[in-house]
Amino acid sequence: xxTYVTGTTIRQLRETRKLTQAELAEKIGVSSxxxxxxxxxxxxxxxxxxxxxAQALGISVIELMNGEYISNRNLSANxxxxxxxxxxVCGNVLHSFGDTVVSCCGITLxxxxxxxxxxxHAITIENVEDEYFVTVHHPMTKEHFISFVAFVTSNRLxxxxxxxxxxxxxxxxxxxxxxxxxxxxxxxLFRKKK
Length: 194
Ligand SMILES: [Fe+2]
Prior knowledge:
Elements: H1 7-16, H2 21-28, H3 32-39, H4 50-57, H5 61-66, E1 83-86, E2 93-96, E3 102-104, E4 107-109, E5 115-116, E6 122-128, E7 131-137, E8 146-152, E9 157-161, E10 169-172, E11 179-184, E12 188-193
Parallel strand pairs: 5-12
Antiparallel strand pairs: 1-2, 3-4, 6-7, 7-10, 8-9, 8-11, 11-12
Helix pairs in contact: 2-3
The structure holds fe (ii) ion.
Fe (ii) ion is lined by residues 120-121, 138, 144, 184, 186-187.
C-alpha cells in the first residue's frame, strides 16, 4: 500500500456530497471533531472505517485511497482521453474511454503514457481487402514481445491480444479517425495516428 486516504480527499468528497462534518460523522459513527481532524491533517481514519467512509461518500475504497473519484463526467469521452492499463503481474490489459481507477492483482495500475514508435518498434500497415494488416517489426520471445495491438476511435475499440512465440501481426478494421496502439512488455505503449 503506497497511498492512504488524505484529509483533502475527504473534505472535497464531503463538500461535493453537500454533507456537513457532523452529517458525515453521524453516518460512520464518529464525532464531527474527528472528521474535522482528518480534514485538517491532524489525524487519519482507522482502516476499519475506510469501508463505511467510502460508502458514506458514495465511492469505492480504492477510489477513496487514491483520491481519484469518478463522477459521471464520462459523457464527453474523446480519443485523447482513451487510456490503457497493463498489469505487470498477470499481463491483463484494460482500456477505458475516460479517467478511471483500475487495479489488478492487488496493484493500482497507472494509465500508460503512449510514445511515438521508435526504430525498434516500427509498424507497417497494409491494405488487405476491406481490412488492414498490421505488422509490428519486433521480437516475440518469452522475455520480450508485443502483448497487444489495438485501434481506438472515439466510440469503438478493437483489441487483439498477442502472445510470445506467435507473430506480431493482426488484421484490424481501421475505419474512421483513430489511434493505433501497441504494447511491448519491456518498452511500454506506442501510438500511431491513423
Ligand atoms: Fe520492445
